């Protein structure tokens, strides 16, 4: 029997949903949607990147945009910023971030909040006039495609741009494949840094080489079935397939069609592609692809470059690029400048100013990374010093602190109905506190700290040096916001997921626990040892002991219930607050 979500999508999903959104918008917006049809239409709206914000924020919507592999062409960030300035205004200001801002996402795109449905047609007109759209940005479909944000700019072993573009134009825009069993993530990268994080995608194409007919051929190896969430993370499994660049699209499309045709539509907690891949196994999938979906003979996998991966791989800074923050070389002799935006939130005016800087010092193009940061590209040597001296770079530096450089955070209870804790504001406060209260060895250039408001893990806590997941706990007889704290995650050659060392730590005791852990790392590490390496070399019992919760002078707002702390919210107690139970609800449902 099909899951209820399948029934809600039945009869209208994909491109045709847009006409209904426009009709509702023209006839009064939120109020035009029959109350008994909210669930049905909100499920369908997601395909167009339109998410109704949580209960208590009735009539307000979030819009997720899509721009494959993080490319924002000249004027696009400015347009997004202008839309945010005009339309993304809540009933009150966020005490940490004000009103009218954009969120940079972990899939190299942008989210806008506090939108009114009646404004959506005009918002779409403004965005689409600049080439920005929201189609296929949410729901059970192919999400924004991730890749190296510097493809075409930095050195690549194999050029990934044409493949990424074809996935975007020919695959994601195919309405026949709009209704997938669940959301589906695609990545492709031609660089040897590993920045597309292929190991946590439903299908990933990574650079490889193989001898075919006596010739060394450059192309891609294929991995499938990676993903996070629900405390059931999976690293993608090699499919034992190597493809030439000109054949890669057909294999990618083939697996999308296979999952579309055979994927589980009954049990949503077990129907992501990672469970499908586990259930079928690599041999059956490979044989089915060959027999039913691919019309050329696939080769077995070639030699990969995973041993060279440095992106979020827990390796020393001198080993290579571990993010895209800072100044780097482009293959054309120009430079890119990656800026640190802690927790990925940019006020609209700052987004517009960054667009102005990209015009003034570069080509106007901006790239977005999987770590919620923007990169200004095409900066000439003679312009670097002046760009780096711009006042706004004091707020979003190219050389941030190790904590700011490694920070990521999901949306949290501010807007997400399944989150258990507030995230972005709290993480911003914690970063300032760590900067003042924790001293790291001089050779430690980053501590990757990721914060997810629940087990769906949109903040990718499972792949962090220190991963935080929102929970609830009792303290002094009161239910409060809390964290589970894990350590030792990362991708790279051998992806690993965090091991939990403390659970349900009240939010006001968590910074002290993390400080104690980091002080132990500084005191006991070997020379040059990264945090991930130190965790791997340290007994679990010791890590638990080092990470001792402690009350400090850290001021922890929103302890009782972030959902009612600073903006108008429903009077009724939230389900999360009422139960205090762990949620395994999947992301974006």
TrEMBL record:
KW Nucleus (keyword) present: no
Sequence ranges assigned to domain Nitrite/Sulfite reductase ferredoxin-like in this UniProt record: 57-92, 96-129, 329-390
Coiled-coil spans in chain: none
UniProt keyword DNA repair, yes or no: no
One Pfam family named in its UniProt record: NIR_SIR
A molecular-function term among this protein's GO annotations: 4 iron, 4 sulfur cluster binding
Highest taxon of the lineage: Archaea
InterPro entries xref list: NIR_SIR_4Fe-4S, NiRdtase/SiRdtase_haem-b_fer, Nit/Sulf_reduc_fer-like_dom_sf, NO2/SO3_Rdtase_4Fe4S_dom, NO2/SO3_Rdtase_4Fe4S_sf, NO2/SO3_Rdtase_FeS/sirohaem_BS
Keywords, comma-separated and alphabetical: 4Fe-4S, Heme, Iron, Iron-sulfur, Metal-binding, Oxidoreductase
Domain Nitrite/sulphite reductase 4Fe-4S: 139-293, 405-548
Residue numbers spanned by region Disordered: 570-589
PROSITE patterns the UniProt entry points to: NIR_SIR
UniProt record similarity statement: Belongs to the nitrite and sulfite reductase 4Fe-4S domain family.
Protein name: Nitrite and sulfite reductase 4Fe-4S region
Organism in which the protein naturally occurs: Natrinema versiforme JCM 10478
């Amino acid at each position: 029997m099909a899951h209820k979500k399948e029934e809600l999508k039945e009869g209208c999903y994909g491109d045709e949903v847009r006409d209904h959104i426009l009709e509702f918008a023209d006839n009064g917006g939120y109020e035009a949607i029959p109350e008994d049809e909210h669930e049905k239409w909100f499920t369908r709206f997601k395909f167009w990147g339109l998410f109704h914000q949580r209960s208590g924020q009735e009539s307000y919507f979030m819009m997720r945009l899509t721009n494959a592999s993080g490319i924002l062409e000249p004027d696009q960030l400015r347009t997004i910023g202008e839309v945010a300035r005009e339309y993304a205004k809540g009933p009150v200001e966020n005490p940490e971030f004000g009103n009218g801002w954009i969120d940079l996402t972990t899939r190299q795109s942008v989210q806008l909040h506090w939108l009114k449905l009646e404004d959506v047609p005009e918002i779409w007109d403004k965005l689409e006039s600049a080439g920005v759209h929201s189609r296929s940005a949410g729901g059970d479909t192919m999400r924004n495609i991730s890749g190296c944000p510097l493809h075409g700019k930095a050195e690549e072993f194999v050029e990934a741009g044409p493949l990424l573009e074809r996935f975007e134009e020919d695959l994601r825009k195919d309405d026949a494949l709009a209704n997938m069993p669940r959301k589906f993530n695609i990545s492709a990268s031609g660089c040897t840094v590993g920045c597309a994080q292929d190991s946590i995608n439903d299908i990933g194409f990574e650079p490889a080489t193989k001898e075919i007919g006596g010739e060394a051929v450059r192309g891609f190896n294929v991995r499938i079935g990676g993903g996070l969430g629900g405390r059931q993370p999976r690293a993608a499994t090699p499919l034992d397939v190597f493809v030439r660049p000109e054949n890669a699209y057909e294999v990618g499309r083939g697996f999308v069609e296979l999952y579309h045709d055979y994927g589980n539509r009954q049990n949503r907690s077990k129907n992501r592609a990672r469970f499908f891949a586990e259930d079928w196994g690599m041999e059956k999938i490979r044989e089915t692809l060959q027999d039913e979906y691919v019309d050329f003979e696939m080769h077995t996998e070639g030699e990969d470059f995973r041993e060279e991966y440095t992106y979020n791989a827990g390796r020393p800074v001198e080993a290579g690029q571990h993010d895209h923050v800072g100044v780097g070389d482009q293959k054309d002799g120009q430079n890119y400048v990656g800026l640190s935006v802690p927790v990925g939130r940019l006020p609209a005016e700052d987004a517009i100013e960054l667009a102005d800087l990209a015009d003034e010092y570069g080509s106007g193009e901006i790239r977005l990374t999987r770590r919620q940061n923007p990169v200004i590209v095409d900066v000439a040597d003679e312009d670097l010093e002046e760009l780096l001296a711009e006042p706004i770079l004091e707020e979003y530096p190219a050389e941030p602190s190790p904590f700011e450089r490694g920070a990521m955070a999901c949306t949290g209870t501010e807007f997400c109905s399944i989150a258990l804790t507030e995230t972005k504001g709290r993480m911003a406060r914690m970063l300032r506190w760590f900067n003042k209260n924790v001293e790291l060895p001089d050779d430690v250039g980053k501590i990757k700290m990721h914060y997810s408001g629940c087990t769906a893990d949109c903040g990718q806590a499972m792949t962090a040096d220190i991963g935080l997941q929102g929970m609830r706990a009792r303290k002094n007889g009161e239910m409060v916001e809390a964290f589970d704290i894990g350590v030792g995650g990362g991708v790279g050659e051998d992806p690993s997921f965090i091991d939990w060392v403390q659970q349900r730590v009240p939010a006001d005791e968590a910074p002290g626990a993390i400080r104690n852990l980091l002080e132990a790392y500084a005191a006991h590490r070997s020379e040059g040892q990264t945090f991930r390496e130190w965790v791997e070399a340290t007994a679990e019992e010791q890590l638990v002991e080092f990470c001792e919760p402690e009350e400090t002078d850290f001021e922890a707002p929103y302890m009782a219930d972030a959902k009612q702390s600073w903006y108008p919210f429903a009077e009724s107690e939230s389900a999360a607050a009422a139960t205090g139970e762990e949620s395994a609800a999947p992301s974006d449902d």
